[in-house]
Structures are given as C-alpha cells and as structure tokens.
TrEMBL record:
GO terms for biological process: phosphoenolpyruvate-dependent sugar phosphotransferase system. This is PTS system, Lactose/Cellobiose specific IIB subunit. CDD domains: PTS_IIB. It comes from Trichococcus ilyis. One of its GO terms (molecular function) is protein-N(PI)-phosphohistidine-sugar phosphotransferase activity.
C-alpha cells in the first residue's frame, strides 16, 4: 500500500477538502493508497512519528 500526504499552509481546510476529493478518486479507481492530511508546520512531526514506528 502506498501513502500520500496532502499538506497546505493556508489553515482554512484546503488540505482536508483535497484529501476528501483524492480519496474519492482513489476509491473509484480502486488504488492501494492511504491518504493523510496536515498543515505544513506539522509535516516534520509526521516524519518524526513515522521514523519511530518503523
């Protein structure tokens, strides 16, 4: 399974809206992709957590 990260800096929910639309396309095409969304400020936190989970 692949993972995709959608991030934005605007802080107005654009990454969540894009995540929802992206998941819709992924389901329609039955692709093995898990999508998460975040602000750009939190991306380094996600990377750190990922390293600890491996």
């Amino acid at each position: 399974m692949y993972k995709a990260l959608i991030a934005c800096r605007a802080g107005e929910g654009y990454s969540l809206m894009l995540k929802i639309k992206t998941e819709q396309v992924i389901r329609e095409n039955q692709l093995p992709i898990k999508v998460v969304h975040s602000s750009l400020d939190a991306v380094s936190d996600i990377q750190t957590k990922r390293n600890y989970q491996q």
